UniProtKB/TrEMBL annotation:
Protein name: Purine and uridine phosphorylase
GO BP term, example: nucleoside metabolic process
GO MF entry, a single one: ADP binding
Region Disordered, residue ranges: 702-727
Length: 887
């Protein structure tokens, strides 16, 4: 059949059928079956597969299926190689609906099933049993030749239906027409000799052909009327070894109903497909390459005929099988150790098969903080990525973080509404398999089922410290890693010097016992030892010394037996940095103090880069004060205090409709703003110190309500600074912000080099993780980093942190990217200030930071405590506040 080049440009998403071949000759014959070959398409850098793009026309429908053919790397066969090819194919072609594994195999003849060379075996048994059986051929268990390891899921229903059509009398030999092509006949001529020897008769050693084999040992079989290959339907055995044992093969056939052996299909566990094999030998010692090409051609011809009878609409209605959405915060650590049984238990429970009708399988990873729950969840999603069309990670630590997580799902999936309920509803109606990970479900008496979509299409993982959450699904207690895995993880973290496990077994066991097999403590202890601060044998002494010195520094929860051990391992590392005379070790501690007041995940390098750039501009022109707001809408706005001390109320009057919208401000905010407002042309003072009404517009046309403050003390000195004697307006930053930024000494070089080196020092001690220049901390490290600070250190670090955040927003930003990424960090800053219970007056320059940050939060339409900061006590310049109704 002539092959025509296709010039119409297509995309990776245009291809819905994946065709995998193990050998080059198989792929060459597959290409000859295409009705058209398409132009190549650029691939992602991570995909090293070699593809052929084309199409196969559908019978009588005037349309075609777009096919992508992949071949295994040269000289690589087996289940692992097939799994790698399939994984890359699924990641590249996100709209694939199913696959075909097409090639050659070793057949098993019997009087009951007359399998001969050149015949085709399709992995779709008539009894609806498994199409592919995974086995080990005497490799691991002595005395047992065939070890049944599992089965592949049945082929997708649309392919099984097509197989039924192909079985019809009028179509049984239709596939043979695809062999009547000059190119096919030239590449894959049919051999004349189809000889089957007795099972017990082995091929002579060293003989290159069967010319010298004993003719009398040939197996007598009934003559076929013609040389037309037949199609058989039954189970296919798949393993990593080539089978050259006819006695073994016949025994397997009788016991398990196997029709042929091959080496790749078992690697396609996450690739819904149909396996089609042409018989090239009899799985005995007489096997040779004479029938390879012809057997590959008959298998390819059958695959083509099968696709020709699959309706276009049947494929278009199928869900995609590749992983299209990947919302996972970071990769797993390279030191991940153990948990094999948990991961297998999770896979068995969460990865759904085609006939699985369970309602929303849920798995609960339960254990104390630092036990490795989240890390195990990340490892699971990495291992099983291709089993789910979408994997969505939601930090369920608070209602705000959960809202953010569901909003990210909405953005990724182009859902118009970002509300939790609407995203849940959308997931409930999505037919493709999805996985929702609810991380940090640690709030007592919280009904986490309120985050569950209502229907059965997906699966859910929860990580929690709360034993009561086990009721949500199948669970596993993960507090302890186990002695062997703990020692392995510790020594791995210690580095190459400690890889002789037998030599260091006893010393490692002492440290493992010290930290009670808790994963995060083992990693930190190992990192400390690996950096050479002490030996493995000396670590227990360092640990106990630090524990005694800092025992009363932490909260009661932190001092609790097992958590106390964890925090001590952190403190041992911090003490080493503090005692060092190295500049960058000290700067690392400064960076850690700032990270303590940001969110524990996703601290992007861009935050520091933008802050550095704007602080330089600020220093050059402190008299230029760009207003935060650029647009004005007319409105009449009151900021008032309800007579009840429990809340402040904002009343907004729309001049056109007279509508009134209120936002309640939490009671704890009242203490932050205690002084009366200064007079201004834009403010009408009232007797009530909590009321200011906007009645006039300034000369610029901007409505302004300056903040009510005291004499604006410097955060560091608690005294009035000369550089704060400015106009008292809140909508710009000042020299104080420049000097506060410089006071960190993290930017003395006027580059990010000091930040980068400090980041490396913290990462070397496993106090932080760095992924693509973004920093994250384990929640326990994050909590410890804040708790270990004195009140004075906390105040200074908090001021430096809000200053860095405020500076980072002052240049023109794309609020849909950078501004949105700031939200969690802004809320973390406000939360820390609020939790400290400040009753003193708020300095003007800090109010300026809060004003800038709260505006960023308002832009993101986030109804959180930060917007309350924005409206409380007139810390605003009103321009865009009424652009949309407040909820």
């Amino acid at each position: 059949m002539p092959i025509t080049l296709e010039t119409t440009p297509l995309t990776l998403e245009s291809y819905q059928v994946g065709w995998i071949c193990a050998l080059s000759v198989e792929a060459d014959l597959a290409e000859l079956m295409l009705d058209k070959i398409h132009d190549p398409i650029p691939l992602p850098a991570r995909d090293e597969n070699i593809y052929t793009f084309g199409q196969i026309d559908v019978n009588g429908q005037g349309g075609s299926h777009n096919i992508v053919i992949a071949r295994l790397p040269s000289a690589e066969t087996g289940t692992a190689a097939a799994a790698t090819v399939a994984k890359d194919m699924l990641r590249t072609f996100t709209n694939l609906k199913f696959g075909l594994m097409v090639g050659i195999a070793g057949g098993i003849w019997s009087p009951e099933v007359d399998v001969r060379l050149g015949d085709v075996v399709v992995g779709a048994p008539d009894d609806n049993g498994p199409g592919v059986v995974q086995y080990d051929h005497g490799k691991y268990i002595q005395g047992k030749k065939f070890v049944h390891r599992g089965i592949l899921d049945k082929a997708p229903k649309v392919l099984r239906t097509a197989v039924s059509v192909a079985k019809q009398v009028r179509r049984r030999k239709a596939f043979l027409s695809h062999l009547d092509d000059d190119d096919v006949e030239e590449l894959a001529p049919r051999s004349t000799d189809d000889i089957l020897f007795e099972a017990a008769y082995a091929h002579p050693d060293g003989a290159r052909s069967c010319a010298g084999c004993e003719v009398q040992r040939k197996k007598e079989r009934p003559e076929r009327r013609d040389l037309v290959p037949l199609v058989h339907y039954g189970a296919i055995a798949s393993g990593n070894g080539v089978v050259k044992d006819a006695l073994f093969a016949d025994d397997v056939r009788r016991k398990h109903g196997i029709l042929c052996f091959e080496m790749e299909a078992a690697g396609l566990d996450n690739f819904p497909c149909l396996v089609i094999r042409g018989i090239s030998d009899y799985a005995d010692t007489h096997k040779n390459d004479d029938w390879h090409a012809y057997a590959a051609s008959t298998a390819a011809a059958y695959a083509k005929e099968l696709l020709k009878v699959v309706p276009l609409t049947a494929i278009s209605q199928l869900p995609s099988i590749g992983n299209k959405h990947w919302l996972v915060p970071r990769p797993s650590t390279a030191r991940f150790t153990g948990r094999e049984s948990v991961l297998q238990k999770m896979k068995d429970h969460l990865v759904r098969r085609s006939d699985d009708n369970r309602e929303r399988p849920t798995f609960v990873c339960c254990g104390m903080g630092g036990s490795g729950k989240s890390e195990t969840a990340i490892k699971f999603v990495e291992n099983n990525r291709e089993s789910f069309w979408g994997i969505f990670w939601v930090n369920a630590d608070t209602q705000d973080t959960a809202k953010d997580g569901f909003a990210k799902i909405a953005s990724a999936c182009s859902i118009s509404s970002t509300s939790i309920e609407d995203v849940k509803s959308w997931l409930a109606n999505e037919v493709s398999p999805w996985l929702l990970v609810l991380d940090n479900c640690d709030t007592m008496n919280k009904d986490y089922s309120s985050y569950f979509p209502s229907r059965q299409n997906g699966s859910i993982i929860m990580t929690t410290r709360l034993p009561e959450c086990k009721s949500y699904g199948l669970s596993d207690d993960m507090d302890k890693l186990g002695p062997e895995a703990s020692s392995s993880l510790l020594l791995q973290a210690c580095g190459d010097k400690y890889q002789d496990r037998e030599r260091h077994r006893d010393a490692a066991a002492n440290v493992v016992k010290l930290v009670d097999e808790l994963a995060i403590a083992l990693v930190h202890a190992g990192a400390y030892i690996g950096k050479g601060f002490c030996t493995l044998q000396e670590y227990p002494q360092r640990f106990h010394k630090t524990q005694r010195k800092h025992a009363m520094q932490f909260s009661p929860v932190q001092r609790a037996s097992r958590y106390g051990s964890v925090y001590t391992t952190f403190e041992v590392s911090a003490k080493a940095l503090s005692a060092s005379g190295d500049k960058y070790d000290r700067l690392a501690l400064t960076l850690l103090r700032i990270l303590a007041f940001l969110d524990h995940e996703g601290v992007e390098e861009d935050i520091f880069k933008r802050a550095l750039e704007y602080h330089q501009n600020l220093n050059q022109n402190l008299d230029t004060r760009p207003h935060v707001f650029e647009e004005l809408q007319e409105a009449h706005t009151d900021v008032s205090c309800d007579v009840q001390p429990s809340q402040l109320v904002l009343e907004e009057h729309e001049p056109e409709h007279g509508a009134r919208v209120k936002i309640s401000v939490p009671r704890e905010m009242n203490s932050l703003f205690q002084n009366e407002p200064r007079s201004s042309t834009a403010v009408v003072p009232t007797e009530n110190p909590f009321i200011a009404t906007v009645d006039e517009k300034s000369a610029t046309g901007q409505m302004s309500c300056p903040v009510s403050v005291s004499e604006t003390p410097s955060l560091s000195t608690n005294e009035t600074s000369e550089h704060d004697a400015d106009d008292g307006e809140i909508d710009h930053l000042s020299r104080w912000h420049y000097e506060e930024f410089r006071s960190t000494h993290l930017f003395d070089s006027n580059t990010l080099s000091d930040i980068e080196i400090s980041r490396v020092r913290l990462a070397d001690l496993s106090l932080i993780r760095v992924n693509d220049k973004a920093i994250s901390l384990h929640p326990l490290v994050h909590e410890w980093a804040s708790e270990r600070l004195s009140a004075e250190e906390r105040e200074q670090a908090w001021g430096q942190t809000v200053c860095i955040l405020a500076l980072s927003t002052e240049e023109h930003v794309d609020w849909q990217t950078f501004t949105m990424s700031l939200q969690a960090h802004i809320k973390a800053c406000f939360k820390d200030w609020n939790n400290d219970g400040h009753d003193d007056e708020l300095p003007l320059d800090l109010a300026r930071c809060l004003h800038v940050l709260a505006w960023q939060t308002y832009r993101a339409d986030n109804n959180s405590i930060t917007r309350n900061f924005y409206i409380v006590r007139h810390c605003v310049s009103w321009t865009s506040l009424v652009e949309q109704p407040m909820q």
